[in-house]
Known about the structure:
The protein is mostly helical. The protein has a domain at 148-235. It is built from 8 helices and no strands. Helix 2 runs parallel beside helix 5 (110-281) and helix 4 packs antiparallel against helix 5. The model is unreliable at 1-9, 29-69, 283-339 and 417-423 (pLDDT under 50).
Amino acid sequence: LISLISLSLYHFSNFSNFSLSLSLSLSLALSRSLSLSRSPFSLSRSLALSFLSPSLALSFLSLSLSNFSLALSFLSFLSFLSRSIISLSLSLSLSLSVSVSVSVSLPHTGLLEDERLASAHQAEAFARQVHNLQAQLRSVQEEIDSLEEEKESELTEAHEELRLAQEEVQLLQQEAEESAAERENDIASLQEELCRHQAELGRLNEEAQEYELEITTLRAEISMKSQRREQERRGGDVETLKQECITLREECETLKNDNRRLTERLQLQRTGSNSHLSLKEDGEDTGIGVGTEMGGMAESYMTMAECQSTGTGTNCRLVDASIQKNISFDGKPMTPTGWNGGFGEIVSLRDQLKQAEEKASLVQRQCDCLKTELRELQVLYDCSQRERAGMEEELLRCKAELERLAGGGQVRGHTGVRGQGSP
Length: 423
């Protein structure tokens, strides 16, 4: 539109120049027609010069009508051209009247008649030119009307397009305002969500710190308990076992010494019994009866010893206990009066042996109890180790959960920032 307006202004300036030249030519023609009274012989030349400018104007008009974009300038020019034609017709009638008056007032020779005829022919030619110009003017007027209609239609279309563009701009402005409001609402909601997640993250961090502190405390307690149990197990149990081992060794040495002494006594008694048997064969019948009684008693005591043996190696020591009935501890045969003393010593030895066996079984039971307690302590230690492993796994899960939550909060924060920048 700006280029069209500038082009119209340019051609309008050209038309103004043309109208100025046309007015100058018309004034020149009028001045020459007014000077006809001074020189009546130059009437034809003045008329020719006066009608020369309309032909030039028509030539300029035919050249300017080639441009389609000069519709508005053509209207003003056509009005000016119609006024020019009217003035030209007036000047023509004035020239004819002047020529008639000159022909009447100056009865001259045939030269004037010829000049009048030439002027009449020129007037007819000029009239034909005027008719042609009027026809051209009508065609130009029709063309200008069509151009004006096209211009009106184009202006209507341009106004319609402008109205549609304005409506679209308004719609776009409304959409932009709505999108800006939605973006502000989204930003506010994202900021609220970010604050909420930050608060939740802070709470989770505090809980994680509490869990870590509790886990550290539990680890310290477990380590202290394990150390204390280890120390107790290594200290008290080891010391107790050492003392019991020393006691058992002493008792074992004592039992070995008793066994060795009893073995020596049994050997002495066996050697004494052999000699006593040899003496018995040569003895009196009374001695034989007493020996028989002693043998029966020995057999009974042997049976008792065999029944009361506990599998600890005492059978071999008590099998020949009946020999002690007739043998003293010095290797001499025992008399019936000295039998009670030897029998009492055998009973006392048997009691000592029973007591030693009871002590050994008691020590064995204590050892079994200690082993059971050791197994229980080992089970407790394994349970504490499993609890420690479970707590470490729970700590790792808590740390992973905290890292996941922290990563989720950061991702949502970046998403909010991208949402703020994308609209």
